[in-house]
Every structure is written in C-alpha cells, then in structure tokens.
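Problem statement: downstream parser choked on a complex file, so we are re-checking the raw output for the magnesium ion run. The parser issue turned out to be on our end (a line-ending mismatch), but while we're here, posting the original submission so the record is complete.
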Amino acid sequence: MQINTPKKTKSNVVTMGPPETFEYAPSIESTEIVKIDKQNKLFINGKFTAPKNKKYFLTYNPATEEVLAEIAEAQTNDVDLAVKAARKAYTGVWGKLSGKMRGRYLYRIARIIQERAREFAVLETLDNGKPIRESRDIDIPLVAAHFFYYAGWADKLDYVVPGKKVSSLGVVGQVIPWNFPLLMAAWKIAPALACGNTVVIKPAETTSLSILLLAKVFQEASLPDGVVNIVTGAGATGSALVTHSDINKVAFTGSTEVGKLIARSIAKTSKKLTLELGGKSAHIVYADAAIDQAVEGVINGIFFNQGHVCCAGSRLLVEESIAEMFIEKLKTRMNQLRTGNPLDKNTDVGAINSKTELTKIKKLIRTGIDEGGDYFEATGKIPDKGYFHKPCLFNNVSSAFTLSRIEIFGPVLTISTFRTVQEAILKANDTPYGLAAGIWSEKGSKIHKTASQLKAGVIWANTYNKFDPTSPFGGYNESGFGREGGRHGLFPYLEIK
Ligand code: NAP
Ligand code: MG
C-alpha cells in the first residue's frame, strides 16, 4: 500500500498527494446462478415465440467482448402479432379484472423479482457491463420497489385525481434504452399495468436479456397471456411498434434525436405520447458547501453507471473561490476509482455498453481536446479486452464548447466556474436540455433561491442521483415531457375525465 503525503498546491491549499492504491484482492461474483439460453425468442401472448423470418442477432458481454446469446429480431408481422395479443388481453381477461386483482399480480411479480434478485443482478451486469455493486444494490432493488409501489395504486385509482373519473387507455407501446435495461422496463410496465392497460415493449438491441428473464417471472406469477409482450430487435422494430395503428399510447425513453422522430411519426394520430429523453445536467457547488461530501456527490453524479445516466451531473459549475482546491480533490478521488471487471465487487466503474458507444465517447473527447479543453484522465489500468474508459474531466470549458452542449453519455465531466448565484443559474440554464440539476450549499435559502430558478425536472440538494418510485422523474425542453414515478407517473397511462 502507498501512504499519502500531504502536499501544497500553487494556491497553498493543502491537498493529498498521489492516490492511495490499496490493491484489493479480486472478489468476483459467481455467474453460476444465471443460465442464459443460447437462442432467445420473442415473448408474445405468454409464450416464447420464434420470429416469423427466423432472424436472430447477437448480444455481447461488453466487459469481455464475448457473445452471450442470440436474440430474435422482430419484424413488422411479429410486432403485429404482439399488438393483437395485447389487444385481446385488454378486451378480455385483463380489462375485466378489478384493480385489487391487478395489484395482486403486481405484488406477486415484485416478490418473485426480490427472490430472484441475485440472478437478475448478475445477468444485468453480464449483458450491460455495469458494476455488480450497482445492479445488485441499486437497479434490481429499485425494479422490485417500482412493482411494489404501483401494485399499491392499482385499487386506488379513484383517488389519483380527486373529483375526476379515470380509466385505462388500452394497448401501450413502449421503447426503452440500454443504460438501465430492467429498471426502465419496470418504470414502464408497472404503472401501465396498475392502470389496467396491456403492453408491448421493445428493449434496446444490446440489452434484451434481463427483460426476457422478467418474462419468465410473468409466467411464474401466472400473469394472464398477452398482458405484457416483448418484441426484441433494433430501431426498425421500435419504429414498427410505435407506428402500429392499434396502439393507444406510446412511451419512449431514449435519445432526443429518436424521440423527435417518434413524435413526428405519430403526430397525426390520436396516440398519447410521453418522451423521457437526454440531458446535460448542471451540478452547482457553492463555496459554502460541505466540500468532501460535494466531491463524493459530483463523483457519483457523473461516474455512476459509467456516466450512462440520462440525468448524469455532467456539467460541474463550481464557485471560483474554491475551484482549484475542489478540482484537485476531485482528481484525487477519481484516481481512486477502480475501473474494470464489472463482476468484481470492488469495481466502481464498469464497461461501456458497446463498441459503438465507446467510439462515440472517444470521438467527443478528441473534440474537447481540439477545442482547447484542459483534459485530465484518472490514473490506473483498464483491462486490455472489453470496452472500458477511464473516468475523465475537462476543466475550463465554456458554454460555447461542444462538450458543454452535447450529451456525451459516458464518464466525462466538464467543469466551469462562476462567481455569483445569478451567474450559476444562468450557466446552469444555458442548455437545450432540462432533466436534472444538483446544488451543494449549507444554506437552505440559497438552495431554494437557486432551485426555484433552475429549469430542470429533478433538482437534488446536497445529494445526487437518488431515485425512489414515489418520486416523479422527467424533464423540460429537449429532455422530453411526461413523468415517471409517483402519482404523476400514473397520469400518462390514464384517461382522466
Ligand atoms: P436511442 O438510440 O434513442 O434508443 C432508445 C431506444 O429506441 C432503443 O430501444 C432503440 O433501439 C430504439 N430506437 C432506435 N431508433 C428508433 C426508431 N426510429 N423508432 C423507435 N425506436 C427506436 O437511445 P439509447 O442510446 O439507447 O439511450 C441513451 C439515451 O437515452 C440517452 O440520450 C439518455 O439520456 C436517454 N435516457 C433518458 C432517460 C430519461 O428518463 N429521461 C432514461 C434513460 C436514458 P436500439 O437500441 O435497438 O437501436
Ligand atoms: Mg450486451
């Protein structure tokens, strides 16, 4: 073990020296609990069904580049079959069930997810590349919590909007991204079912395995056939789903670019739409903040899930008087993050989900360097094989930089400074997005003053990236519209009269 020695920086601020590098013995989670089928079919009308044209694509473990399985590629005719099954379930058994009975199914699903949590966590880590610590302690518990929470609402819908009558919409078409595969599925499926709708859902091409395991949970819970149907495939499958004529509502989580395409493609229909899109969230640190906690918050805000987080605190705005010291501390902390095997319980930063994403991140970093950003990359090794990127930051980045404006969706933090509260607010709002923000200060009044002027759907104070099924989540402007979670998360799935 290396022992740190305090040293003086230019501004005479005492900081710690080179990073402590405890060499932890590997602690690898066993994968024995997971059995991955070599070939994975579509889930239609309660059964695993081969795609009509027999086409399959490969899904990989991004940490090893090894093939995990073959996944069915649904075409328009398969999507049509899935929508028909959902319609039949809606007009039949599911549509006739009481809220109390729907709630029972949701509770049952939540309990089975808890029982099989370890299996889900390992599978999610294998297919997505996120650290096991995160899939085990954050993703999967939140998935179960979402099903529990909306199970509780299923028989209380008369109280969702006091004085108003509510009813279900029908068949819902849902498309989700790869960054939190099972959690995004839960955010979509649980409220839709609680409200009495049936579902056809398409996961992202690179991360279909955990939702296919969820299909087995639906079977185990005896969820009636056709209530949830899963069509795997790429963008074309998603497009076939959202444009299908017998869909009543579209719920999409993904990039702003695809969100706009979808909005355009259904503009002339009566389909309801919610869009949960990208972000470029500001993380404001005032000089009076609890500095060490704020450093931890900023680290968590950008490096959690390799930065593949729609609400990642990717733009740090730090008060000028503490900037030098704060950035020094950030760098020290970054050097302590362990990037590597996601199955190792000591790993902080796992694998980038795909080669395509890694290439995109590297290209944007190159742009930042070319534009004159002050680049810092954490020390330490990354594995030779697999798609990995070290945590990094760009200092002295103005709002005009490409990196300040574009969502990188990787472990890249950009930093600029401010002198007054007003300047912090102006800079934070200087973005086409509006998903989330973070504020660090010991003064409640300053936090309220700042928060009330920030244009962001979710604002955390003296913490970051805290998620709870009871709390609504969603954005403004280019980050989309509609809320997921909480009572608000029911509105998009109900007709309210
Ligand atoms: P994406 O490329 O937009 O893909 C999202 C989903 O849409 C995937 O299932 C994708 O399929 C599918 N898709 C692609 N083209 C389509 C089309 N023309 N019609 C219908 N569906 C289509 O986004 P991503 O790269 O997977 O995810 C990252 C983005 O999601 C980021 O921008 C992030 O901020 C955002 N996100 C937002 C939230 C939120 O709550 N606001 C949460 C998580 C992520 P394939 O993957 O198979 O191409
Ligand atoms: Mg994969």
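For whoever reads this later: The radius of gyration is 23 Å.
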